[in-house]
Amino acid sequence: MLTRSAIALILVAACGDKAVDKVPDPTPTPAPTPAAPDEHEVMLAAMTGFTDQMCACRDRACVETVNTAMVKYTTEASGKVTPATPPPTATQGDRIAAIGKRYEDCSAKTLAANPAPDAAPEAPTGPLPAACKRFQAAVMAFASCDKMTTPIRKNLFEAYDGIEKTEKMCTDGLAAIAEPATRMGCKLP
User: Fold this and answer.
1) CA atoms of 69 and 101, how far apart (whole Å)
2) DSSP category for residue 126
3) Half-sphere exposure of residue 139, counting CA atoms within 13 Å on the CB side?
4) Distance of CA 176 to the CA centre of its chain
5) Rounded Cα–Cα distance for residues 142 and 181 (Å)
6) What is the DSSP string of 97-118?
7) How much is the pLDDT for 89?
8) Global pTM?
9) Which is nearest to 113 in space by CA: 65, 63, 164, 59?
10) pLDDT 10s digit of each residue in the chain, 189 long?
């Protein structure tokens, strides 16, 4: 009677070590760990959603609702930004600028078609409300920060130029940039 070791020896002699190769490894291969999502891509997807909502707005109340939700999102998302967070790529920066421009264009178009009923339109050369003066100073300080990339700086200026200069819009704008500026180590007035 042949023993197991004799059978194994015969198989090795007849097949070489090929028989050994055919024995499956009982140790399971661990599944690859999924890569962490690129925070800039997550933000771009969210901003595209807000922009689509803004472009669907047909009245002032919708614009304010979407703007408030967007400011809340950007304030919360900025909590994930640290000095170690890599800046967006040039392509991402261009996409951020394009999405920001589309958002502001849609907002401006809807607001122009639906002027505030209780206020006369502000003259473009008129005095800025106090909140807008603070927002303007904060935008300039944030844009001057050495950690600011050129595409983001451009988007920041376009966003400031594109908003209606009311107390609420400027207060919301200031709130939206305060947290990311702090996280990036940029000082605002």
Assistant:
1) 18
2) S
3) 22
4) 12
5) 6
6) HHHHHHHHHHHHHHHHHS--TT
7) 87
8) 0.50
9) 59
10) 444 444 444 444 444 444 445 555 566 667 666 666 778 888 889 999 999 999 999 998 898 899 888 888 877 777 776 777 788 888 988 898 888 889 888 988 888 888 766 544 444 456 778 888 888 888 888 888 877 777 777 777 777 777 777 888 888 888 888 888 888 888 888
Query: The tokens 């940039």 sit on which residue?
Result: 177
d(CA 98, CA 81): 21
Under 8 Å between Cβ of 93 and 151: yes
> Quick one: tokens of 139?
């935008």
| CA gap 68, 173 in Å, rounded | 10
Sequence letter at residue 166: T
The token pair that represents 145 in the structure block: 């920060």
Separation CA 159–CA 155 (nearest Å): 6
**C-beta of residue 99 within 8 angstroms of C-beta of residue 51:** yes
Please provide residue 33's backbone torsions phi and psi, each rounded to the nearest 5 degrees.
-75, 125
